[in-house]
Design a protein that fits this description.
- It contains four helices and seven strands.
- By secondary structure, it is an alpha+beta fold.
- It folds into two domains: about 35 residues; about 90 residues, no CATH class.
- A five-stranded mixed beta sheet has the order 3-4-5-6-7.
- The longest helix has 29 residues.
Length: about 140
C-alpha cells in the first residue's frame, strides 16, 4: 500500500507539469505569435492588391495578354467564353453573386513570377478588388 501514495504524487506532479507547459504555451501564443503574424500580412496576389486594385486593371491586362476582354452578361455567354483569355462576368453570368455592383474578371492563364496560374478569378465590389480565387490544383 505504500506505493499507492507515491504513485499518486507522481501523477499529481506530472499533471502540474502539463498544466505549467500548457500555460507557458498559451502565454507564448497570445503574446509572441501576433507579432510574427502581423509582419507577414498578405496584400494580394502578384499585382492584384486587395482593396487597392480597381477594375481599370482590365485595360492593363488586355495590353499584357494581347487580347480583348470578353464581356459575359448571361450564364450562356460565360459558358461560350470559356476558352477566352480574359472574361468579365456581370449580372446573371456571375456565380458568386447577381448584384449589379459585383464584377468577376477571369484570367485563363497568368504568370506570377515563374508560376503559371490557370483560371485566376478576381472579384470586384464597387469596382475595387475584394477577392482572388484560384481553383484547387491549377498551379503549375
Amino acid at each position: 500500500m505504500e506505493r499507492s501514495p507515491k504513485r499518486f504524487n507522481e501523477v499529481v506532479a506530472m499533471n502540474e507539469l502539463r498544466l505549467l507547459c500548457s500555460l507557458f504555451l498559451f502565454v507564448f501564443l497570445v503574446f509572441a505569435c501576433p507579432k510574427y503574424a502581423s509582419s507577414a500580412e498578405i496584400e494580394g496576389l502578384g499585382p492584384f492588391k486587395l482593396a487597392k486594385t480597381t477594375i481599370s486593371i482590365m485595360k492593363q491586362l488586355e495590353k499584357e495578354l494581347k487580347t480583348k476582354c470578353t464581356i459575359a452578361t448571361t450564364f450562356e455567354q460565360q459558358v461560350q467564353s470559356y476558352n477566352k483569355k480574359l472574361v468579365l462576368s456581370l449580372g446573371a453570368a456571375l456565380v458568386v453573386s447577381q448584384c449589379s455592383n459585383v464584377k468577376e474578371l477571369t484570367i485563363r492563364e497568368y504568370y506570377i513570377g515563374e508560376f503559371k496560374v490557370d483560371s485566376l478569378s478576381l472579384t470586384f465590389l464597387n469596382d475595387i478588388l475584394f477577392s482572388t480565387a484560384i481553383p484547387k490544383g491549377v498551379w503549375n
